[in-house]
Amino acid sequence: MRVLIAARLSQLAEGQTGLDSQDAESTAWAEREGHEVVHVAMDRKSGTTAPWDRPQLRPWVTEPPKMALYDAVLAYRLDRLSRGDNESTNAIEDWAAKNSKQLLTVDGLVFPCEGKDGIRWDVTKRIAHEEWLGSSEKYTRMTAYLRSQNKLTGKPPWGFQSAPAEDGKHKVMVPTDIGRKYIPEIFSRCIAGESAASIARWLASQGVRPPLASAWHASAVIRIIRNPAYMGRRSARISDAVYGKTILRCEPLVDAATFRRAGEALTDRPKRGPKDAKNRAMLAGCLACLRCGSPMYRITTKYGHVYYRCHGNPKSGARRKGCGNMVRLEVLDAMVSERIGRVRAHIMETRIKRGHDHKAELEEIRLEMRELTSLDLPDDEFDARMRELRAERDRLVNLKTKRDEVKLIDTGISYAAKWAGLSGAERGAWLRSAGIRVFALKGSQADVNAIAAKGGLFGPEDTPPEVVDGVALFIPTLGFPLAKAPYHVKLTEPR
Ligand SMILES: [Zn+2]
């Protein structure tokens, strides 16, 4: 039999469309069944429009010369041919009967047909109709839902308050002064790499009242960073920090790009367990082996001595093995402490002045597009709105961009002063938050020189560190990316 395939055009990737993967199966099925595929007509959102109203399919089902070229219309499922309601299914049945064409589906439906096949067709038709009733009811509920948008129900999140809407009957959500002041900084601190716990401590130090609880917790900060209300979209909460559809628009306190960056910063951050408590070794998380670059961790020997030991390359999995480098913990802690305590240079803080890369607006449009597809709008409305969004997106993509300006601000505080002001327990956390990396090796000057000769961790111009009491210490204070570190260490060692 000669078949015409009614298929769906799908969005395969951003800006790229093609044959829906299910419809690709229609072709394979036709070949297996020994049919000859005459043409594949691909239309967007096929099932919601009658075949003779689809741009690609229309000529094939209305123009006699084309209609003479095939015997049957094949679709992946019945929903590619009919919307599911009786009216649209009857219409295609009538069309097939009048033009002596068959209707086929990959899951084995045949029309016109008799006996067992006839029953299958009828049953499928009824199921499709039931489904159609269900989804049209869903659609009615959805529109009622959307009409009720921008009316506040429930308690607004921290940093917002409810205010009477223009209609005087309902309530809307507006930022509080506290929200305007602190929300943007909470997000920028998170992007800069500060932990939720540290942001919570900062908020407490500012005397800001926490949401619900009596004190600020890291979890409250995380909930703020995950809540889309702060970019102007109060959303349905699915679980603790997972949100769905927008239910209320409000004034944003951060833009969409900032919201996404903060969320990513939170997700990408290495998980810190209770280890980050007081008993964590001072150099844990910032110490690496000078010989092989692997991380060094605290160990206690069976004689009760405490060391930092090279732990080997984390990527080597089960075969992970250190190079044998071990340095006494108290010796190394004291050396690092003494070294930083001598640095008179000021701590520089990184401030980022945002340029215009239109990322925020593009992010907005991306969100709008995603939401649009979930609204089940009628085809023409969907297409019109999508066209608008695409045009706006293309306009933004073609605009000139201005790069972010990264500025270094002198905090006026020297490393020596900062270090002296920190308690023993705070020093480790500060080293980690400042992004300071420390390399150490127990060995002779000859060992260190040999590593340097091989081009090890130092550049060719760097003098290898001096071995003191059998330990070489190296703090490459400029060795981390500027934009990522909350502090920028511009270090000049005093004579
Ligand atoms: Zn090592």
Query: Given the structure, what is the number of helices?
Result: 15
Computed CA radius of gyration, to the nearest angstrom: 33 Å
For the residues shown, what is the average pLDDT?
A: 79
Helix content: 25-40%
Structure classification: alpha+beta
Ligands: zinc ion
Shape: elongated
Contiguous runs where pLDDT drops below 50 for at least 5 residues: 478-495
Work out the number of β strands: 20
Count of structural domains: 4
Strand composition percent: 15-25%
Amino-to-carboxy terminus distance: 92 Å
> What's the main sheet like?
6 strands, mixed
Short description:
By secondary structure, this protein is an alpha+beta fold.
Question: Your description of this structure?
Answer:
With 495 residues, the chain is an alpha+beta fold. It has 4 domains: 2-147, Rossmann fold (3-Layer(aba) Sandwich); 148-269, Putative Large Serine Recombinase, Chain B, Domain 2 (Hect, E3 ligase catalytic domain fold), CATH 3.90.1750.20; 274-350 and 406-489, no CATH class; 357-403. The chain has 15 helices and 20 strands. It has helices at residues 21-32, 58-62, 64-67, 86-99, 115-147, 177-191, 196-205, 218-226, 256-268, 329-341, 359-373, 379-397, 415-421, 424-433, 445-453; strands spanning 2-13, 16-19, 36-44, 72-75, 102-105, 110-111, 160-164, 171-175, 233-239, 242-249, 287-289, 296-300, 306-310, 326-328, 346-353, 405-414, 438-442, 467-468, 471-474, 487-489. The strands form 6 sheets. Strands 1, 2, 3, 4, 5 and 6 form a 6-stranded mixed sheet that branches. Strands 11-17-19-18 form a 4-stranded mixed sheet, with helices on one face. A 3-stranded antiparallel sheet has the order 12-13-14. Strand 7 (160-164) and strand 8 form a beta hairpin. Helix 6 (177-191) crosses helix 9, helix 7 crosses helix 8 (218-226) and helix 11 (359-373) runs antiparallel to helix 12 (379-397). The longest helix has 33 residues, at 115-147. It is elongated, with a radius of gyration of 33 Å. The termini are far apart. Bound molecules: zinc ion.
